[in-house]
Predict the structure.
Amino acid sequence: MGADEITKREGTEREETTAWGTPTVKGQEMEDEAAKETEEEWPDRHSDLGEVVPEGKDSETTQAEQENTDGTEEAQENGQPIVADFLAEERSRLHETMSLLGLETYCNRKLSLQDARQISFDSMKNWAPQVPTDLPWSFLRKLLALNSEVRNTTLLSDLPQDDRTGEKETQVDEQEIYWGTSEDIYSLTELATTPDVPLNPLDLLCALLLCSDSFLQQELLVKMSLCQFALPVVLPDSENQNHTFLLWALRGVMRTWWWQSPGGSRTSREESLVLTRVPIISFARMDISSHSKSHLLNAVMSSSHHQPHDYFCHREMPSAANAREIADGLVEMSWYSPSGGSGGKENLDVFPEPVAFANLRGEIGSHWQQFKLLTETSSAVFILTDNIGQKEYELLCSLSGSTTRYYLILSPYRGKRNANLRFLNKLVSVLQMDYSHVLVKVSSTDSKRLVRRLQAIVANVIKSASRKVSLEDMAETARTLGLKVDEDCEECQKARERVEKITQDIHDAELYKREKLRLQGDPWRNIAQVEKELCRLQRAGDSSPEKYKSELRQRLLALRMHQNRYELGWAMQEFIKGIANPSLVEKQYFLGWMKLKLEEMARQRWRQSPEALAPLGPKHSRPAEFREQFWPAPLGVEHFLREMGQFYEAECYLVEAGKMAENQKRFTHFVGLASELVLSGFPLELMDRGTCCVPLRWVTGILRELHARLEGSPRLLVLSVLGTEGTGKSTLLNTMFGLQFATGRSCKPHGTFMQLISVTEDFRQDLGCDFILVIDSGGLTGGVTAARGERYELEVSLATLAMGLSNITVVSMAEAKDTPLAALHAFLKLEKLGHVPNCQLVSQDLSEGPVARPHLRDRRQLLQQLSDLSRAVAELEKQEEERTLSDMVLCDPEKHIWHIPRLWHGVPPMAPVSLGYCEAVFELKRCLLENIRNGVCHQHRDIVQLVELVGRL
């Protein structure tokens, strides 16, 4: 039968998928029927069509591979020269790719998170890359901003020829103005033509990861996880053939999943991806396969009710059809997490339990080390191929004795039927398969039946899986196979050992705070109350003000002397050694391990009694006192830094009071250690929400140290965000500026934190500042009922500080009624002082479903509701003059009120971040930077002025 006739028949035949033999999973009757149909049709369908385009390769490359197969095998049998040539070619490809992207500099001096965060001219642009060297920076900006289109590596210059005609004609006309009718027409043609430089998105990802330090790698993988992209687990390095298992880079990724009990109640669980044990289902390609492995994986992971999400890059995506240059050997994984029936009336869960899918890029014979890793850790491995000849048979025979289930996915049109059948019959006994483990995709297009069949097999594997593996387990196997593990570097291991020593005695977080961090809690709370009373003198009674002040000072002195009697505990000493380490890398690992370890402890405590939090309802509507009764602030790195701050404060106060000589001070260097953390981009606590009191000497000491360390008098601009808890404040800041404010349900601290972002030198003059200091406030209480009691007074203090320090304040809300009245109250107080920051009101959509974008009238209505609330606050302040929000703040509904669409596109936990969310956040960021650039907000300050302002507030 000729190829033309076969092609004609393929266009008319019905799509179907079949298994050879008797299926052992659900859908048996349907598949028996499919198998019968295939047996009847099979004799007329076998043929070898010759050229096949494998996944990730272009047709020319494939043809060359087929022509040279025999020569390569012969060279491998006779010696090693072909291996050397192959390695040299791989190294050349890596160098060419790095050169193309302009990343050669960063092969040794790695890119850092601070590099990626810097504010530059490009921070205000949403432009497409025009040349290949733009691609890495475009990728970094978009990924940190959670833009789901980040994997599109199409250049702006890669337009259709017709679209560039006008541009070319203009260029030629300009040349003719200068040169007349130049005879050098060829040079003009070269100038007008832009070469097409295709780049596979996986090559760009691998190049960036190879050029990034461990901490930027970790942040990039966290962002990829939020976008629901498959995560790189084994990173190929064709330079040294020393492939890396990315265990540390994956440490920061968290996963949440839900399950539904027989009684109908839903329970959630949040856990580190590295620690989660699940069955692993792997997909790999042997020799040539006409199927798109990644496209098939996406369909298997997606509900039949929805268009498959692009978890894995596949050839139908923009730029992904380009041949891979350096990404072969990459192992990616994507985790499926059930929603527990949260999709409404219909349960949209594809699988009832969590499961991981692994995907090996490239052919298994060329990447045997990575393939062995998958075979030794997976519950099932699916191998896609069109031919099983002698070479393929011998390759698979080496897996004899493995307890992993193996499945083959074949195409009858592309393979050689008789040879396939002969070797398949031998493999059945070698790999302990039966004929239901061989799947044949009959049609040339994607078959829904094949997807349903694969989903049924995976569901059966999950149900009967005795092997559940975590990434930590997988890393142990990787080590035995000779793969490098990123965590095994000396700095990481030393930091981990120190953290393990510090945290080994933490069994009860609240008890640990009381017994080991003794300067906090009640001592710090009592000091805060006395210091506030010194400012207000509200309880003087019949005593004269001077006498009352003297009594308060004596009480404060006694409290500080009591604090100063304590010695640094062993754990605190180890913590200080950790952040004082002269090795910046080891210090960063130490802080990373501390954060991860303490967060895991907080999650374990949260999992012990999830039913206690169930009646609390939506986060943004919970009263603070009710919430904290069940869920006090988790133990975090900020508690250790706060303890350092109290040692420093007590000592400084005693020197000021004349009770200690200057040369007796032991903790002066603490502010230097803290300032180094701020300069490295670490979020530092400004105010503890439990006391709502700023440790003034500690904070101003850190700021003065920053001033001393930074050259000149750096200009600062301060941006703060306020809002009720659960309205997405921290996520908004992290998305806008690539920051790392805590966002987890069980691990989020309750204080106010500041983080420093630098501005690139070439943009400082234009923007008018050298650094932007971002303040993320603790969640305030919303609603009119909150405007009473001591809690309200504390929140007013917090809001007054955050707004008083800032040039720009963003107020985040879900609805107008949830607006924190403490923020409106703070506006009134600051207006009296003559300082009202530029205000941006952000309404974030927290609904479960899509909501229409609000019109201008909706924004005006929101402004009116807020003005009504501000009148209520003015009445509480007993102000005779009615004040609205418009009176207090210049508030234009078109320029100062923003609507941010809901974060997720679909039903979590498998929903990716919506494109609408990241686009709206980018537009808000662009507007904020434009306001700064145009001087709309208050003028910048230097650090000395900021210190003075902190003292006044």
